[in-house]
Amino acid sequence: MLSPSSDLPMTYTESILALCSGRSFIKSQRSSEKDAKTLYPVNICAKLITIRESGRKEAIVLTLNKPAIIGRNPDLCTYIVNDSLVSGLHCKLYAVRSPSGGIIISCQDISRNGITLNGQLIKKTSIILMDGDVIKLPNSLSFTCLHLWKGSADKLSLFEPTPPLQPVHKDIGRYIVTSQCLGTGSFATVHLALDPAKQRQVACKSIRAKRDYEVGQVMKEVRILMTLKHPNINEIYDTEENKKFIHIFLQLCTGGDLFTYITHATGSGHRMCEAEAKYIAYQLLQGLVYLHDKSISHRDLKPENILLYNPGPYPRILIADFGLARPNSYQETFNVCGTVSYLPPEGILALDNKHLGYIGMPADCWSTGVILYIMLAGSHPFDNEPRPSSNWFERVKRTRDEEISQELSQSYANADIRLKEKIVHGEVVYFHDPWSKLPDAKLLVDSLLVGDPQERATVYTAFDSDWICTELADLEDLYRIRVLSAYEN
User: Which of 15, 174, 274, 316 is placed for a possible disulfide with 309 were both Cys, Cβ 3.0 to 4.6 Å?
Assistant: First the structure.
């Protein structure tokens, strides 16, 4: 069976659970200072400051992708608190890169009695800790979070004209929406919010509609999406209309997105190990089967729209950003949408030929094939020719945030034309490394990247592929332990 590391003589499931449980982390924590400096570069992101009863001031230091665990168990925790209401493993703290280039500091409550965040009770969920936030263990210590790595401030539409120096709040329905911005886009901003009744943080996506009829159109789509309940789909909890704003309250994910995870958490080469890529692909297919069973297509599948529910290896993933989703997706549409580098040939042709249409569900399958290729190879199957930045990941990150010069714009435009031609003609290049070692994975990717949508693999046939079936029992066990058990609770 596959194992994520050759030095772990365990089953597929046991190996992954060991990586995720913190056992390997605890072992590394207890290695020598010299080894620690080799394994973890000095890259401090945040500190959590507390004062013991003796008056002694102490700090928990967080660095990238190196969790800290608070609790009573001296064998598994890195910071010990011996109070009766504190659980053996009470909470886990993480620092990971955010999609915007900053840092996400999160705290996952895994205790019996919960924690309080700035005086609000939080139980059995993950939260994002902003600079100055205070978490308190039950009848015990308080910790103040101090960010040492701070991203640039963005303009916000909900809290104009600029983010205030101190966080402010607005009551919208039953929610408390903060000025802390989690992300911005062309049509919406996402803010951190609190749901006191459910003892959890949520994400508030605020869309500004320019015309009255747009409000009704967006709400119609949102009501369809509110019916979706699946552990691999970002859940919509609630909506509120406020003048020209539509506020959508979503399940909060604290691990960033898949694109950022691949680029920063998978080592050199931006390539995942096969076992982790397969576990993520299995979850992606689970979510897509659920959607396609309901005749809903996403139409903008890409690593940036796949979120990690919590930080850490072998994450639970959630398909997100359903702004372009389409019901009745077995019907042809003439409204081409999505990201060019993830569009299928029929979508590319429809971009320049308005009389042509395409169907959403086969388009999702093509995008899935591209995502699998990226996870396993660390590169894009079509967008792979040299440009001003030869590394595809670096190029995507740069064009997210920067305006490019006219000369570079023309270079990108010419490259995009060639990219479209490659997609239409199905010019997939499988380099010897890693594909010679992954024959079953290559067959699956090949079946998803078929130019004819009628011949292309569906999400159902992808589940029947040898690449999935060889570890199906282990994948099902791991999914039940790590995803379904938490979702059902």
Answer: 316
Write down the mean pLDDT value for the chain. 83
Q: Is the pLDDT of residue 369 over 60?
A: yes
Given the residues 195, 300, 383, 474, select the one marked as catalytic.
300
User: 235 and 263 share a domain?
Assistant: no
Strand order in the sheet with 115-117: 57-63, 44-51, 142-147, 134-136, 115-117, 120-122
Strand pairing category for 188-195 and 175-184: antiparallel
Give the length of the chain: 489
Shortest CA distance to 93 belongs to which of 50, 35, 30?
50
286 and 404 belong to one structural domain: yes
| Structural domain containing residue 3 | 1-33
Judge whether 210 is annotated as a binding position.
Answer: no
Look up 364 and say whether it is catalytic: no
Name every residue whose Cβ is closer than 8 Å to that of residue 30 and which is 6 or more positions away in sequence: none
Strand partners, 323: none
CA distance 261 to 97: 8
More confident: 298 or 215: 298
Angle at 286 between CA 284 and CA 289, to 5 degrees: 110
Q: For the chain, how many structural domains are there in total?
A: 4
pTM of the model: 0.85
pLDDT for residue 27 is more than 50:
no
